[in-house]
Design brief:
Elements (H helix, E strand, L loop, with lengths): L11 H5 L7 H17 L2 H18 L1 H4 L32 H37 L1 H15 L3 H12 L3 H12 L1 H14 L3 H8 L4 H37 L11 H8 L8 H27 L7
C-alpha cells in the first residue's frame, strides 16, 4: 500500500527567518522579527521598554489610578504631609497629593515626547535627505541653517523661543521641536551622501524616477532606522528640556501637574520637606533612563550589520 506523506507546513519561526522570502511582506516581517529577537536579548533594553509601557498605561488610566485630585488640596489638614499610608508620596504646599500629580503629569510628559518626536523627526529627516541628495547650493544653504541652530545650547534656544511665543505647554512643545531637528538632519545627510552613490539609486535614476520620488521613496526609508534610534535616545533630553522650561515657569502653568514645575514648587522645601521635589525628580530620572535603555537596545536591533 503506497502512502504519500503530506507536505509539512513550515512553522511561523521558519517562515519569518527564511533566507529566501517569497514576498516583500514576508521579508519585512522577517526583518522586524529578527530585530525583535536582538532587542529581546538585551535585558536592560527590555527593562526600559517595560518602564515605558508602564508610563503609557499610567497616562492612559490616570483618572482611575490617581487616588486624589491632582489640582485640589486642603491647606488646613493636608499641607506638606510626609509619605504615609494615606498619601504614599506625601503632599505639597497646597495640600495636593504628590502621587496623584505624578500620575496625571505622566500624560503631559508623554504628550511632550510624542509631539516633539512627531514634529522634529520628519523635519530633520526631510532637510537632511534633500541636502544630501541635492548637494551644491541647496546642501550648503540647508546645512548653514542647521549649523546656526546647533551653535546654541538646546535649552537656551528653547528659552528664547518660549520667551517670544509666551509661556504654556503648547508653546514649549513648539520651541523644543524647533531646537530638536538639527541633529536628525545632520545624521540623515551623512547617510544620504553614502546612499546616493550606490548602484541601487543609479538604477532608479535610469528608469526615470524624479528627484523627489527618489528622496521620498528610496532614500528616506533607508535613513529611517537611524533617525528612530536617535529620536529614542533624544527623548530623555526632550523630557529634561521640558522639565527645565517648567522649572523656570515657561512650560505648563499652575495648577497643571507638570513634573518640572513640581520640582520648582518644591525647591524651597527641599531641606525639610524633601519629598515635594524628590518624587518628581525621581520620576524624571526613571523615565529618562528608560528611554535611554530602549534607544540603546534599538541601536543594536536596527544595526544592518547585526546578526539575526
Amino acid at each position: 500500500m503506497n502512502t504519500q506523506s503530506s507536505p509539512v507546513k513550515p512553522s511561523l519561526h521558519s517562515w519569518l527567518m527564511s533566507d529566501r522570502p517569497a514576498s516583500r511582506r514576508q521579508a519585512a516581517w522577517g526583518r522586524a522579527y529578527g530585530a525583535w529577537r536582538i532587542f529581546a536579548r538585551n535585558r536592560l533594553a527590555m527593562l526600559g521598554l517595560g518602564i515605558v509601557v508602564l508610563l503609557v498605561l499610567v497616562a492612559m488610566f490616570a483618572p482611575l489610578l490617581a487616588p486624589y485630585s491632582p489640582t485640589v488640596g486642603d491647606l488646613r489638614t493636608t499641607r506638606l504631609l510626609p509619605p504615609s499610608h494615606l498619601f504614599w508620596l506625601g503632599t505639597d504646599d497646597q495640600g495636593r497629593d504628590i502621587l496623584s500629580r505624578l500620575i496625571h503629569g505622566s500624560r503631559i510628559t508623554l504628550m511632550v515626547v510624542v509631539l516633539v518626536a512627531v514634529l522634529a523627526a520628519p523635519i530633520g529627516l526631510l532637510v537632511g535627505t534633500v541636502a544630501g541628495y541635492a548637494g551644491g547650493l541647496v546642501d550648503a544653504a540647508l546645512m548653514r541653517v542647521t549649523d546656526i541652530f546647533l551653535a546654541f545650547p538646546r535649552l537656551i534656544l528653547a528659552l528664547a523661543f518660549v520667551a517670544a511665543l509666551g509661556p504654556g505647554i503648547e508653546n514649549a512643545v513648539i520651541a523644543i521641536a524647533i531646537t530638536a531637528w538639527p541633529p536628525y538632519a545632520r545624521m540623515a545627510r551623512a547617510e544620504t551622501l553614502t546612499i546616493r552613490q550606490t548602484d541601487y539609486i543609479a538604477a532608479v535614476q535610469l528608469i526615470g524616477a524624479s528627484p523627489w520620488r527618489i528622496v521620498l521613496h528610496h532614500i528616506m526609508p533607508l535613513c529611517l532606522s537611524s533617525v528612530i534610534v536617535r529620536v529614542t535616545l533624544d527623548m530623555a533630553g526632550i523630557i529634561l528640556t521640558a522639565a527645565g522650561l517648567g522649572f523656570l515657569g515657561l512650560g505648563a502653568q499652575p495648577p497643571t501637574p507638570e513634573w518640572g514645575a513640581m520640582i520648582a514648587n518644591g525647591r524651597q522645601y527641599v531641606l525639610d520637606q524633601w519629598w515635594v521635589a524628590a518624587a518628581p525628580g525621581a520620576a524624571i530620572f526613571l523615565v529618562s533612563l528608560a528611554f535611554n535603555l530602549v534607544g540603546d537596545g534599538l541601536r543594536d536591533a536596527l544595526d544592518p550589520k547585526g546578526v539575526k
